[in-house]
Amino acid sequence: MLKKNDQINDKRPLSGASETRRTIVGSILRGLPQVAVMIAVLTAGLLGMNWLISNKNEAPQRSAFKPVFAVETVIAKSGVWQPRMIVYGEVQASRFVDLRSLVAGQVISVNPALKVGGYIEEGEALVEIDTFTYKGQLREAKANLQETNARIEEYQARISMEASQITRLHEQYKIALSDYQRIEALRQGGTATAKQLEDRSLVVSQRRQALEQSELTLVAEQAKLEQQRAIADRFDWKVKEAERHLKDTVLKAPFSGIVSEKNAEVGRIVSVNDPLVSLFEKELLEVRFTLTDQRFGRIQSDQTGIVGREVEAIWVVGGREFRFPATIDRIGAQITSNRGGVEVVAVIDSPTVGSPLRPGAFVEVIVPDKAFEGHFRIPESAIYEDNVYVVENDQLVVRNVNVAARDGEYVVVDGELEDGDEVLTTRIAEISPGLSVTITNQEAPRE
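Given the sequence above, the corresponding structure tokens read:
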């Protein structure tokens, strides 16, 4: 019994695997027609596509279109061109002075017109300092001088008296000497005694001594006179010094100008050399600006040079433009590398008193460049590196040029250009010789 069950169990698995195989085979057989249909459709599609590609008609080819650019030109004209350079500079006072106190004391008066920015006339009193001390010094110096002059007169009188006395003593000496000679002759003749001769000799000696003493006194008096004259000279200088100090108590304007600084008020105690007023001359303003080495050398090589060249200073303030003619007066004393050029000074030609221009203003300066003879002036837009293009037979032709100078939106050139050439001014990115163009307008070169 057990054996049969084992046999039965051994056969069941074999029966299930066989059934599965039959199911798979059946499914495959049923799907074969569908696969065959798909393959047939794909084959037919490929064959049809190949047939269409091999039998398609060629599309007609369009001919290449040659581009033509609409451009603007300018007619080249040679001549003498003088560009104008634009530089920037600063206005400064040509004549500027700091007025300082020459004496010490208390300020007792200030000119009402003495205000920063105010206009002062030449010789006008600006500040007055208390004069009490300086009047006293002048009075004392005059008194000393007067006293010394009196002593001089006294010594002169003494000298005159001494000179007169010397004359009298000299006469007395001559009389005594004559008397002595007479007694001496009588003594030799035996009519005069020895005592008489001795008495006359004593008188002569006394007269000589008195004369010599008077002459020495005259020399001493003359020396004292010279001493008093030296003292008088010293006191005379003291008088002039005191007069000058008294005059210096009033500070006056040395020239007509504009007040740039004021440090004086009534009641202030000032010392000698204290700054009180700063003043600059309105009619003498100048502008300093810098030219590059290249520009400076170019202008300097011109026939007219740089000094004396007329320029124009333009000051723009509050939307308003003020123009001032000026003349280059001189070149800076030194050339400093940090400025990148040469400093030039131009004097502004007589600005009016009412002009608002002041030192420190930043201005634009128009400087005439060198005059270029036989050059062309064309717009800067016509320059392509070192070339320009001209239009010939509706096509572009390249010409080599050298840029000599720039003039705003224009350049001054020379080179292969000729009078009457139509120079291209329109910018074209893909520009090249032979490019076809059509001219829309022509612009004559500006004067």
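The first strand starts at residue 68 and ends at 75. Try to locate this feature in the token string yourself.
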